[in-house]
UniProtKB/TrEMBL annotation:
Annotated ranges, domain Terpene synthase N-terminal: 74-217
PANTHER family: OS04G0344100 PROTEIN-RELATED (PTHR31225), S-(+)-LINALOOL SYNTHASE, CHLOROPLASTIC (PTHR31225:SF0)
Signal peptide positions on this chain: none
Organism: Saponaria officinalis (Common soapwort)
Cofactors (names): Mg(2+)
Name of the protein in its database record: Uncharacterized protein
Upper taxonomic lineage: Eukaryota, Viridiplantae, Streptophyta, Embryophyta, Tracheophyta
Length: 473
């Protein structure tokens, strides 16, 4: 309730919307294979058998990840600003000219190339218009346009009905066989089917229908087969544009022609391609600097020396931040978010492999009290981790207070306490050999959800991001 009240004060999403964001981020990260699954050795809860748990090799700070160069202004900054303005003008003209299909294709291209944060307002205005006219103007029998419009609206959060696809079915309730030759339409239909909700049976059948036909196309060029396979493996809704943009740009003209029937002579395609090149370069430079900073912070923290068997992967952890908070202008937010993420992994390892049940109980009580006292029976590595958690949390909250005049420390403390409480519950289950029911496990998992801690640690910066985006637009 405290967190919900806080989110309402700052006009933040509801708990349901946050859960949706959490689930979408998890699905996309799993689809991108950015996280590894680690086995839990049940025996380590009751005894310190550290050697039985195996982790991936430690991240080493190689030159390609860390360098001492100072991040300078990108030469193309002026070109980027001009490019953004030109595309905004093109979108405004398309909106006035009622070029429905082309405007939707432009929006899709912008999203696939991870440029959406430059055009949030323009995209919002356009999709709002399509939503308001959805029931009265959706008479098109073009499968591609219908599916593309449906997907973009669903992605935006509009509750549009999947019944619009009934017109593509025959009298027996099956999708018409003549659609089987429409590669562009089938690709759009498959993409749309991934935004189904419980009860959208027509989208279930649409996904099966389009998937079967796309897998069995044998009269396509090799490059077309590659695009089809990529779509089936990583549909837009289950992928992260920030990690897909460079590959999509490399085959931009070919992909846009197959997906939307676009001609490479279109002026807007040239403008978007040029903007994407500049933006990707800028993001790469920013990411390089961020990795440098977070690795330096991690080394100065010296926790790897205290916990030699724990995970030591700051580069991987920073990928969570890159996925959650996008845009070169919020690098500070991502750095602070990665610090919170690192402690999620540190604490998880403590409960999985380091502590006995008595030590874990004492550790949990210390987090709940938020005090570094009574450590007689706690190992040094756990004490060091606890003090580091307190110090880093205070540092993050001080930055938030300095920047926004609000100190969220008591809320973040509460979340860390809840997180550790549920870690202890699961440790007791493992130690006793208890098999929780589905309801018990889900209740524990929801309270222990890592991403809720991450979002709470960075919510003030997210609010600032929204304000900046509105001003820049």
């Amino acid at each position: 309730m405290v967190i919900l009240s806080l989110l309402k004060i700052f006009n933040f999403p509801t708990k349901i919307e946050i859960s949706k964001m959490i689930m979408e981020t998890k699905i996309r990260l799993m689809a991108q294979n950015t996280a590894n699954i680690y086995a839990i050795n049940k025996n380590n809860i009751s005894m310190k058998n550290f050697s039985s748990k195996k982790f991936l090799p430690r991240v080493t700070l190689k030159d390609n990840y860390v360098c001492d160069e100072i991040l300078v202004k990108v030469k193309q900054n002026h070109q980027l600003q001009e490019g953004v303005q030109r595309i905004k003008e093109i979108m405004a003209r398309k909106l006035q000219e009622c070029c429905h299909s082309e405007e939707l294709v432009i929006i899709d291209a912008i999203q696939r190339l991870n440029l959406e944060y430059y055009f949030r307002v323009e995209i919002g205005v356009a999709l709002r218009k399509y939503y308001e006219r959805f029931d009265t103007e959706e008479r098109s029998h073009d499968l591609h346009n219908t599916a593309l419009r449906f997907r973009l609206l669903r992605q935006r959060g509009y509750n549009v009905s999947a019944d619009i696809f009934r017109k593509f079915k025959d009298k027996n309730g099956n999708f018409k066989q003549e659609l089987g030759n429409d590669i562009k339409g089938l690709l759009s239909l498959y993409e749309a089917s991934n935004l189904g909700v419980p009860g959208d049976h027509i989208l279930d059948s649409a996904g099966d229908f389009s998937r079967h036909l796309l897998r069995n196309f044998d009269s396509v060029e090799p490059y077309e087969a590659s695009i089809i396979q990529n779509t089936l493996s990583l549909p837009c809704h289950k992928s992260l544009p920030i990690f897909m943009a460079a590959d999509f740009l490399q085959n931009f003209e070919i992909s846009m022609n197959l997906l939307h029937g676009c001609s490479c002579e279109s002026r807007w395609m040239e403008e978007i391609r040029n903007l994407a090149r500049i933006d990707i370069n800028k993001n790469q430079m920013t990411a390089k600097h961020e990795v440098n900073e977070i690795c330096r912070w991690w080394e100065e923290l010296q926790l790897p020396k205290e916990q030699k068997d724990t995970r030591n992967q700051p580069v991987k952890w920073h990928m969570w931040s890159l996925a959650c908070l996008q845009g070169p202008h919020i690098a500070e937010s991502r750095l602070e978010l990665t610090k919170a993420i690192s402690f999620i992994y540190i604490i998880d390892d403590i409960y999985d492999i380091y502590g006995t049940l008595d030590e874990l109980t004492q550790f949990t009580e210390a987090v709940n009290r938020w005090e570094c006292v009574d450590f007689d029976n706690m190992p040094d590595n756990m004490i060091t981790s606890l003090k580091a958690l307190f110090d880093v949390t205070s540092e993050i909250c001080l930055k938030i207070y300095t920047k926004h005049g609000f100190n969220p420390e008591k809320y973040i403390r509460k979340l860390w306490a809840e997180f550790c409480d549920e870690c202890l519950v699961q440790a007791k289950w493992i130690a006793s050999g208890y098999m929780p029911t589905t309801e018990e496990y889900l209740k524990s998992a929801m309270a222990q959800d890592h991403i809720l801690v991450m979002y709470t640690s960075s919510f003030s910066w997210v609010k600032n991001l929204q304000t900046k985006s509105a001003k820049n637009s």
